[in-house]
Amino acid sequence: MEIWINPACSKCRSALSLLDAEGADYTVRRYLEDVPSADEIRGVLGRLGLEPWDITRTQEAAAKELGLSDRVRWPRDASGREAWIEALAAHPKLIQRPIITADDGTAVVARTEESVRDALSR
């Protein structure tokens, strides 16, 4: 499995601690340094079963600068999907964290102990 983290994030550190405590075999991706491409984001969204706006940190400064709360400029439907994905690729700090891609091809946004355990069980 792979976990996308920001080392400054307490939820990411908690997820790593739990993975370590459970002896999980995983790879760390510091996604602010190793920025995922738009194609990788599309793939993770498919694995999560979510849309890009579902994993966007809308309270970040970059989100406010982009005006992501403007639903006319940034529609949350098929017509706006690609623009959202491109925004996440261009501004990776907007990506919710941590994200764990499980070995079975699924993924979870691992912000809780339960979601980390869910990824471990796959």
Shape, principal axes of CA atoms: globular
N-to-C SSE string, H for helix and E for strand: EHEHHHEEH
Mean pLDDT comes to: 96
| Residue share in β-strands | 5-15%
Oligomer: single chain
In the sheet with the most strands, the strands line up as 2-1-3-4
According to DSSP, the number of beta strands is 4
Coarse structural class? alpha+beta
* SS field, number of helical segments: 5
Helical proportion, percent range: 25-40%
The stretches of 5 or more residues where confidence is low (pLDDT under 50) are none
Mind summarizing the main beta sheet?
4 strands, mixed
Radius of gyration: 14 Å
Alpha-carbon distance between the termini? 10 Å
Explain what this protein looks like in three dimensions.
The structure is a single chain. 39% of the residues lie in helices and 11% in strands. It has 122 residues and is of the alpha+beta class. β3 and β4 (107-109) form a beta hairpin. α1 (10-21) crosses α5. The longest helix is centred in the N-terminal third of the chain and has 12 residues, at 10-21.
